[in-house]
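quick q for whoever's on today - can somebody do inverse folding on this one?? i tried earlier but teh output was garbage lol. tokens:
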């Protein structure tokens, strides 16, 4: 699995054996954030129109209102990988001024993540019908739970419970949203390392186009203290001779 990165981050990864897992709300392409939200609103809109129960309709409406590009992603951190190590669209997206693509041996990477805990590795889903079905399944689960929740929290006003449940469903959906992308990007064959922040994480901050951007570091050193590094590609956008020379020195 390949991770595309700029030269300064390339140095940091090799020296510290860590990658940056960035808050998803600050990702470069805001269109990528808006896409899953719009798909979900379309799906939930259909469910609202099909709902006959007044409280279920109110719950679905509240959920649709809760979905928003920035609000939706603030609890989630993500690092992008792909099975394609030398793809022009990936160079343009992640290394517009040049950089490197680090190939990590998949089975060892999975083993490392299992030892770290809390981090998950998930393939990006590009199929729009599969995305819509995933959203339907999540929402329907909570719709089916509503009568039991209503009974369990009978002392709580229905409007308050609707707000609480809608917030939970939105959080659950966000875990899927960080690995949803438009079918137009299917050639990138990406997957993501994801994690939700529990409030106790040691966050760091960096500049991204003038915006202070939160991220956390993920130690990818194997049991031998080294990265599970298999192959490195260099960006075709820079001088190949010098790029190879400096990488070799590093």
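ok took a stab at it. sequence:
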């Amino acid at each position: 699995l390949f991770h595309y990165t700029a030269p300064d981050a390339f140095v940091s990864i090799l020296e510290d054996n860590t990658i940056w897992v960035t808050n998803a709300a600050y990702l470069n392409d805001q269109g990528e954030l808006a896409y899953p939200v719009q798909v979900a609103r379309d799906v939930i809109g259909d469910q609202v129109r099909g709902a006959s129960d007044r409280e279920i309709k109110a719950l679905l409406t509240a959920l649709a209102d809760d979905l928003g590009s920035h609000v939706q992603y603030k609890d989630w951190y993500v690092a992008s990988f792909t099975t394609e190590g030398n793809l022009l669209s990936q160079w343009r997206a992640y290394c517009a001024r040049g950089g490197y693509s680090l190939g990590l041996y998949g089975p060892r990477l999975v083993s490392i993540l299992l030892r770290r805990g809390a981090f998950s590795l998930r393939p990006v889903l590009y199929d729009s019908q599969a995305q819509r079905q995933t959203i339907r399944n999540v929402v329907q689960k909570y719709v089916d739970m509503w009568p039991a929740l209503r009974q369990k929290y009978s002392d709580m006003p229905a409007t308050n419970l609707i707000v609480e449940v809608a917030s939970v469903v939105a959080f659950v959906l966000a875990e899927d949203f960080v690995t949803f992308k438009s079918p137009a990007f299917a050639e990138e064959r990406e997957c993501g390392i994801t994690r939700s922040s529990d409030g106790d994480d040691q966050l760091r901050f960096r500049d991204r186009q003038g915006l202070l951007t939160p991220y956390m570091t993920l130690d990818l050193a194997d049991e031998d203290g080294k990265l599970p590094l298999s192959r490195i590609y260099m960006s075709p956008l820079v001088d190949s001779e010098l790029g190879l020379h400096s990488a070799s020195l590093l």
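fwiw The longest helix spans residues 128-152. also The two ends are 21 Å apart (CA to CA). so keep that in mind when u check it
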